[in-house]
Amino acid sequence: MIYHEVLVVGGGLAGLRAAIEAHDAGCEVAVLSRVHPVRSHSVAAQGGVNAALGNHPDASDDNPERHAFDTVKGSDYLADQDAVEILTGEAPGRIYEMEHWGCPFSRTSDGKIAQRPFGGAGYPRCCYAADKTGHALLHTMFEQTLKRGLRIYEEWQVVSLAVADGRCHGVIALDMRTGKLEAVGAGAVVFGTGGAGRIYARSTNNIINTGSGMAIAYMAGVPLKDMEFIQFHPTSLFGNNVLMTEGARGEGGYLRNALGERFMEKYAPKAMELGPRDIVARAIQTEINEGRGFPGGYVQLDLTHLGAEKILERLPAIRDIAINFTGVDPIKEPIPIQPGQHYFMGGIDTDADGVTEVAGFYAAGECSCVSVHGANRLGGNSLLETIVFGRRAGLHASTYVKGEGGARAKAGSEKVLAKVMADTEKRVIWVLEADGPEDPAGLRDELRESMFRNVGLFREEKGMLEGLDKVRELRGRYPRIGIRNRGRRYNLDWARNLELEGMILVAEAIAAGALARKESRGSHFRTDYKERDDQNFLKHTIARLTDDGPRLEYRPVTITRWEPQARTY
Amino acid sequence: MSIEMKQRPEKIRLNVYRFDPEVDKAPRIDSFDVPWVDGMTVLDTLFYVLEKRDGSLAFRYSCREGICGACAMYINGSHRLACETQVARLLDEGHAEVRVMPLPHLPVIKDLVVDMTRFWENYEAIAPWIVTRSADPEKEHLQSPEDRKLVDEYVGCILCGSCFSSCPSVWTGKEYLGPNALMKTWRWVADTRDSAAEERLGLVGNERGAWRCHTVFNCVEACPKDINQTTAIQGLKRRTVGAMLRGSKALKAGRKALER
Ligand SMILES: Cc1cc2nc3c(=O)[nH]c(=O)nc-3n(C[C@H](O)[C@H](O)[C@H](O)COP(=O)(O)OP(=O)(O)OC[C@H]3O[C@@H](n4cnc5c(N)ncnc54)[C@H](O)[C@@H]3O)c2cc1C
Ligand code: FES
C-alpha cells in the first residue's frame, strides 16, 4: 500500500500551499491531483489578491481591520468574524512571502507591489500581476514545490475518502493513465479540491470544477456548510461565460445598458460599477429582464475610454480573450457581458485550521467553508483564502501526524482502506459497465440548466421546489445511465460520469439550503423574502447527507466586533 | 484577428488522431461530422465527440480560456490551443476540415494525450525558482516597473509544451533542455530580484543548453502566447560569453550552487 504522512489532494493554490507548509514542518508529503498542478483552476484567476499593504497613494491609512470590516460587510454579516480577522491579519505576510518566492507582481512607480481598487472594498488593496494574478501565484507556488522536491501524483482522481470511527485513513484514487484504482494511506489528508461551478450553467469556472472533493467528503459523512450561497460574477463574456475580471471596472470600466445608460447609478449610487458582486450582478440581470439589455440577453462593459495604453498594460489577457472568443477589441468597442456563476462561498465545513469533524481530514481553499466569505465573497479574497488557510491546514495536519495521528493511524489504516476499496470498487466498476438508456451528458446539462434557472440569481419558493424536484428526479435517473467506453486507460467517459452522482448530491444540498433560508442575504436573493432576517437566519446552514437527502442543521455566526448593519453602497 | 460573421456550413468534418499504444498496432484517423455552432472551438468539437459519438476519445483540458496550458495540440498543421482555436478561424484560413493531432515528437499515452515527462524534467533541471543570497526584506523586494517589464513576456508562459514539441534540436538531441527550459532560465536571469544569474548561465551555457539552439524559430512560431524564446536564448548566449571572458567563478559552479 502507498502511504504518505500527509497527503494533499489538489494542485491548486490551497493544496500546494498546504503541502509546502507540511513539508517545511518536517513531514513527508505528497500531492495528488487530477490535472498537472499548473492546470488547476487557480491559474485562471485574473484580477488580484487582497492585502492591506497600503501601497496605493489613496490607501496609506489602510489596515487589516478595515479589510476585515469590508469583508464582513460584503459577507452580509454571515462570515465568522474571528476567522475574517485571521484572514486579513495574515494577508500582508502571505503576500510578502509570495513576493519573496518570486511572484511577478505588477509594480508601483516606487517599486512596490501594485494595488488596484476592487468591488466592495473601501481602499485600493487588490495586489495584482496584470490580469493574470492567479497564473503568477500558481506558477510561483509550483516552483516552490519543485524546489522542495515534493512527490506529485499527476492525473490521479480521488474517488473516495477512507473514514472509520471518525478518523481519516487515506483515499481511494483512480490513476487515469492505467485506469487502476489505488488505495493511498495517509496520516492526514488535506483537500484543496476547488469549487463546483460546473454544477451550474453559465459558469466562469474551468471545466474540471465539478465539486468532486465536496461531494466525496459529503458522501463520507463530513457536512457541507452554507451551500446555498453561490456567487454570480457580474461580468462574464456573452457566449461562453469566460470571466472579464472585476479589475476591468477597478481600472475604470463602465457598465452600460442598451440605452447607453450607466445604470449602476440606480443601484449603488456611490460605489457605482464597484459595488459588491451580488448587487452589481443582480442590477445587470434586472436591466436585461426589464428589456434594457441587448438582444440575446447582455449589457456592455465599456473600456474604450481607458485608452489603448492602459488596456495593453493592465488588462492584456482580457483583451485577448474578448478578441479570441467574440471578435471584439475592447480598445475600440464595448464588451458584451452577462452575469455568470463564479464562486462557491459554501463548502466542506472547517474551522480556521482546516479542521473538519473527521480527525486527520482537512480542507482549504474554495472547497472549504471556514467561513470568511459568508453570503457574498469580495473579489480578491478567495486567492487570499487559499494561501492563508492552505498554510494553516498544512501546519495543523503536520502537528496532527506528529502527534496522535501518526504511527497509530498507520497501523489501523490498512484494514480500513481495504474495506473502503472494496465498496468503492463496486461503485466505480458499476459506472464502467453501466449500459442503461440514460445519457449522462444529458443529465448533466439538465442539472446545470435547472440550477441556473431555479437556484440562481433570483430565487423564489416555486422555482426552488422545481429545482429540488429536478435534482431528485436526476438522482432517480442516475442509476440508469449508460456509458460508451469500457476501456480502462484514460477513460474520460468513465471519470467524468463517476463524479456526476456527486454533482447531483451537492446540487441537492444547495437547493435544500436555499429553500429553507426564508430571507435574502448576499448572493442568496429571494423575490418572496426580499429582506435580510437576522432574527431567524443570522446562522450557518450545515447539511449532512442521509439516505433521504440532506438533513439541515444550523450553527450561530461568530460576531466579534461588527454588529450587523444595513448594507448600503 | 477577428472572426468574420458569415454563412457557415451546417456541419464540419473533424479528423482526429487515435492511438492507444497498449491496444492498437498503429495510429489511425477517425472522422466525425460535428454540427455547427457559432463560436465553436476545436475543444468544443472534441467534447461533442466524447459526449455524443465516441466516449473513448482522450484529450486534456481544464480552463477552456487559454491560460492553463492543458490543451496544446497540433491543429491543421500548427501548434495551437484547442480551446482558443475557433473552427471559424480555421475555415477563414482556408481549411475545409478540422484536423487534430497530438503534440508532435512526444510519446502518445492515448489519442491526443501525450507524455510530457521529459518536458517537466527539463523544466525542473534548470532550478526554476528564485535564488536570493541575502535575507528577505521585511516587506517586498523593490522592483521598478521597468525592471518588471524585463520578465513580463517570459512569465506569461503557460507551460503547454508547444515550443518543446516544435523544436528540431529537441527531436534530435535527447539531452537538450529545449526552448522552454532555456527561456525560463532567462526569466530568472533577467529578474532583478534573483541573485544567481551566473550560476544559471553556467547551468545552460553548454551543449545541453543554449549552444544547441540553432535559431530555427519554430518555437517562436509555435508559442500560443507570443513569447519569443529565441530572443531569450540569444540573451543567455550573450551573457554567458561575457561571463566566460571575465572568468566568472559562479559560472563554473552552475547547478551545484542552485541546489535546493
Ligand atoms: C475565472 C476566475 C477568475 C478568478 N479570479 C479571482 C481573483 O482575481 N481573485 C480571487 O481572489 N479569486 C479569484 N477567483 C477565485 C479563485 O480563483 C478560486 O477560488 C481559487 O483559485 C481556488 O483555489 P483552490 O486551490 O481552492 O482550488 P483549484 O485551484 O480549483 O484547485 C483544485 C485542485 O484540486 C484538484 N482536484 C479536484 N478534485 C479532485 C479529485 N477528485 N481528485 C484529485 N484531484 C482533484 C484539481 O486537479 C486541482 O488541482 C477566480 C475564479 C474564476 C472562476
Ligand atoms: S484548456 Fe486551458 S489552455 Fe486550453
Q: Which residues of chain B sit in consecutive blocks of at least 5 with pLDDT less than 50?
A: none
- Bin the helical content of chain A: 25-40%
H and E string of chain B:
EEHEEHEEEHHHHHHHHH
Straight-line distance between termini of chain A: 56 Å
Largest sheet of chain B: 5 strands, mixed
Produce the secondary structure layout.
The complex is a heterodimer of chains A (569) and B (260).
Chain A: E1 2-9, H1 13-24, E2 29-33, E3 49-50, H2 64-74, H3 81-100, E4 115-116, E5 126-127, H4 133-147, E6 151-154, E7 156-164, E8 167-175, E9 180-191, H5 212-219, E10 224-225, E11 230-237, H6 247-250, E12 254-256, H7 264-267, H8 277-289, E13 299-302, H9 308-314, H10 316-326, E14 335-344, E15 347-349, E16 361-363, E17 368-369, H11 381-402, H12 407-433, H13 440-454, H14 461-477, H15 492-498, H16 500-516, H17 534-537, E18 539-546, E19 549-556
Parallel strand pairs in A: 1-2, 1-9, 2-6, 9-16, 15-17
Antiparallel strand pairs in A: 3-5, 4-5, 7-8, 8-9, 10-15, 10-18, 11-14, 12-13, 13-14, 18-19
Chain B: E1 11-18, E2 28-35, H1 42-53, E3 72-75, E4 78-81, H2 87-92, E5 98-101, E6 108-110, E7 113-114, H3 117-125, H4 145-155, H5 162-166, H6 168-172, H7 178-189, H8 197-204, H9 218-222, H10 229-245, H11 249-257
The site of flavin-adenine dinucleotide has 45 residues of chain A, from helix 1, strand 2, helix 4, strand 7 and helix 5.
